[in-house]
């Protein structure tokens, strides 16, 4: 993840644009469980806006896999306010510039057809996913913050008021792909004059889960039409 993001930052500089990256070092499960990570994400965003004095319109949230799940939880928290009062409220004077969801983990269920179709093409295995999701969720009942796929389309109605644009991107060969497609369809149903243009959904052929970060030495940023290439150009357009 770090290597790829640094390449995106370097690429922006080569084009004469200004871009910096700040990583959230959130606590890992099973040492801590949900909603600790959401507490930390909300606190960091508040710090960036109110202490570092970056306006929301200059901020792009980005996450891959479980990190993308956390980005969605944070956006939901900004819109609706999580009922757990230990999570700092985030109030925006204007929408965030954008959000990148790379291979978002939108449900902990492993029933979609792509789990079977891509079981020999992807890096992820259902048994591992069940262990990881159970460690994160612990005994907390599922909700829209944990499994965003099951939130209704109406849950996302206010999304354009908190983030101006969004890129949802995944590989055709990953086990998540059916669930990601179903989730993207819900976001595309948000009815505003501009959101349809600003919510971009990309499925890249012959690529697996989180390939920009697990490219095994491949220059995923420089490979045209790859997930890494698509993300880099989407981000640079907003610098």
From TrEMBL:
Family: Belongs to the 'GDXG' lipolytic enzyme family.
Protein name listed in UniProt: Alpha/beta hydrolase fold-3 domain-containing protein
SUPFAM superfamilies recorded: alpha/beta-Hydrolases
Domain of life, per lineage: Eukaryota
Domain Alpha/beta hydrolase fold-3 per the UniProt entry, residue ranges: 21-210
Keyword annotations from UniProtKB, A to Z: Hydrolase
Active site: 65
Gene3D superfamilies: alpha/beta hydrolase (3.40.50.1820)
Species of origin: Sclerotinia nivalis
Biological classification of the source: Eukaryota, Fungi, Dikarya, Ascomycota, Pezizomycotina
């Amino acid at each position: 993840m770090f290597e790829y993001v640094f390449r995106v930052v370097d690429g922006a500089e080569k084009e004469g644009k200004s871009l910096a990256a700040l990583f959230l070092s959130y606590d890992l499960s099973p040492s801590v469980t949900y909603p600790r990570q959401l507490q930390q994400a909300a606190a960091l965003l508040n710090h960036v806006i109110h202490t570092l004095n970056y306006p929301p319109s200059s901020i792009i949230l980005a996450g891959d896999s479980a990190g993308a799940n956390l980005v969605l939880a944070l956006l939901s928290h900004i819109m609706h306010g999580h009922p757990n009062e230990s999570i700092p409220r985030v109030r925006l004077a204007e929408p965030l510039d954008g959000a990148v969801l790379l291979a978002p983990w939108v449900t902990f269920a492993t029933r979609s057809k792509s789990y079977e179709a891509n079981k020999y093409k992807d890096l992820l295995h259902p048994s591992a996913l069940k262990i990881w999701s159970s460690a994160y969720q612990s005994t907390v009942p599922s909700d829209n913050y944990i499994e965003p796929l099951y939130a209704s389309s109406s849950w996302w109605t206010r999304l354009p008021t908190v983030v101006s644009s969004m890129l949802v991107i995944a590989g055709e060969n990953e086990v998540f792909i059916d669930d990601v497609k179903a989730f993207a369809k819900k976001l595309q149903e948000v009815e505003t004059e501009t959101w349809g243009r600003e919510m971009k959904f990309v499925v890249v052929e012959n690529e697996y889960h989180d390939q920009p970060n697990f490219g095994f030495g491949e220059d995923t940023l420089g490979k045209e039409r790859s997930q890494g290439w698509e993300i880099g150009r989407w981000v640079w357009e907003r610098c």
